[in-house]
Specification:
410 residues; Butyryl-Coa Dehydrogenase, subunit A, domain 1; Butyryl-CoA Dehydrogenase, subunit A, domain 2; Butyryl-CoA Dehydrogenase, subunit A, domain 3; 3 domains; flavoprotein; acyl-CoA dehydrogenase activity; AcylCo_DH/oxidase_C
Amino acid sequence: MYPTVNPVPKGPAFDRLPPWVQQKLSPLAIAKIQAVYDWVENECIPREPIVKAQLEGRRWTTPAVIHELREKAKGKGLFNLFLPNHFEESPGLTNLEYSCCAEIMGRCYWAAQTMNCHAPETGNIELLAKYCNEEQKAKWLKPLMDGTASSAYSMTEPDVASSDATQVGIRITRDGTDYVINGRKLYGNCLWNKDLSFYILMGCSDPENPDRWRRHSMLIVPCNTPGITQLRNLSIMGYDHAPDGHGEYLYKDVRVPRENIILGEGRAFEIAQGRLGPGRIHHCMRLIGQTERAYELALIRCNDPRKKPRGRFIGDFDSNIERIAQMRLELDAARLVVLNAADTMDTHGNKAGKRGIAQSKILIPEMAAKWIDECMQIYGGQGLTQHTPLPEMVILSLSSEHNFGGVEIR
């Protein structure tokens, strides 16, 4: 008989977790994982048609049902679960424990938003908690954690290869008690959604510094600052990602006070490196959850008695048996890679987890894009329509695959 640290939890929220993960879960984590599962399955997924209906004619307004669910989730203690337990503001979960929650959240694209656990909020909240002074925390962090403000991260630019972030060129110039910003940006959530409160912007403040890693700074830029223009929405393969989306922006003589700088001039790369690790884990686990749901939809299609070409279940054909089996193998393997990265971060720190984080950001988006597309194929022509969430899933997975390649990780 092998000893166990904790009783092994039961039920669909835990069935895919390997034993070594189950035994590391605290009683708090077990309760939160189960609560997140119940929330996503009973509150979010059934409301997916309502969210779509409320977006019709109001593409850039956050649907009222999401605001209602956010208040309800906050009341249930399901807000800000992602912030690791070494932060004063943390609810108490480790990176590994939260990863189990993030997978479940991925089953519905906007479920994480109802729990204030969505990108880019997660990365920005952790950044502000880690690097801001107390005055900045009171002004910018607390509203984000309370859910009364919303933020975005602004790094990528159209005129340079932003995968090499030392090329980021938007100019930040000191002028008396202010900084003045001039240049162009891509991505960063859409200004057309009036819920957006501020950007965390990375720009070049000291272009002549011989140390290229000390040329850049990060500023908090309120969205209503004069001089910011959204030129257009950036669609992803024709999908606008409303109500958040992305944009192409022009900054012309945008003036912000010096107290909006984070940590100090020339510290942007130090901040960015501290921001990226956990966020990649969150993204990857949500993608695994999304792919798990696609897999379940494929299983339903394979066993639908109404759809029997040549008198056989779709799932009885050898090619589909092989597809489903290979999908199961790769999903379980992918989960192990990400959970290992999260556990390494908890045990040895974010820097020690860099290898597992790098493996995750390459493997998981590729796996998700591949297998969600296969699930669409199993549905035939219907798989390309709004009859299932699969088309949106494949767009999101392809978007993640390109973003993780170095354009912008949020």
